[in-house]
Amino acid sequence: MSQKIALVTGANRGIGFETARQLGKQGIKVLIGARSEKKGKEAEATLKAEGLDVEYINIDVDNTETHAAAAKEIEDKYGKLDILINNAGIFLAEEFDADGGMVPASKTSQETFRKTFDTNFFNTIDVTQNLLPLVKRSDAGRIVFLSSGLGSLGLHSDPSSPIYNYKVPAYNISKTALNGYVVHLAHELRDTNIKVNTAHPGSVVTDMNANGDIPVEEGAKTSVDLATLPADGYSGKFIHLGQELPW
Ligand SMILES: NC(=O)c1ccc[n+]([C@@H]2O[C@H](COP(=O)([O-])OP(=O)(O)OC[C@H]3O[C@@H](n4cnc5c(N)ncnc54)[C@H](OP(=O)(O)O)[C@@H]3O)[C@@H](O)[C@H]2O)c1
Prior knowledge:
With 247 residues, the protein is α/β, with parallel strands linked by helices.
């Protein structure tokens, strides 16, 4: 099969939806991963009406049974996966107190840490481990993780950085951990044709970030770039719009 097959998790809205649209416009078949069948099918219908080759697939990042089922469905239908974009993620309201202030590291609850890490880290890894055998069957596999500049320890340690005072511990550290996984997976796959990278999309206006400063059209660009890197492209990098970010 020559047509490229991509899967984007959390593709029913926000950056994931726009990423699916931009990949679809490049002639790639995009599987719209969503945990809600209703929302996934609505997204599918919207993009199909734009003439794009897309299809809803059930993936609830927090339900590992759906990971194995999705892998089986993709294997049966396509026999491979060229692009995996781990886009789904959460940022819990519990990171803020009743006055809207950020709950500091010393007060962030175990529950907030665990819930955030389950989705953004542990279960995202499980999605990846289930789908990796299919990515290995591609001639040019690309795996992208949606991290955040807020996961950068380098920026968090630099008082002159714009995010220095934006300390929401569970979300930020879940993305730091995810970046660590990317470095390790890229190293494991260094002698294959698979490229594994982690993206900071920018501060993007979505349901997650009402105060963002760029639209989703621009926010999806880094994911799309990393998903379509050429054969001599890099792997194991933390990227925003082609620029490397500090870990
Ligand atoms: N927006 C920003 O400024 C920004 C900045 C840096 C990084 N990011 C990262 O970019 C990614 C996309 O963010 P966004 O701004 O587009 O967020 P969003 O608008 O809140 O959308 C999040 C998407 O993830 C899905 N999702 C959440 N939990 C899921 C689960 N357990 N299983 C399957 N899907 C799940 C949501 O599905 P439902 O509709 O079912 O909830 C939704 O489709 C996230 O990883 C985020 O951390 C965003």
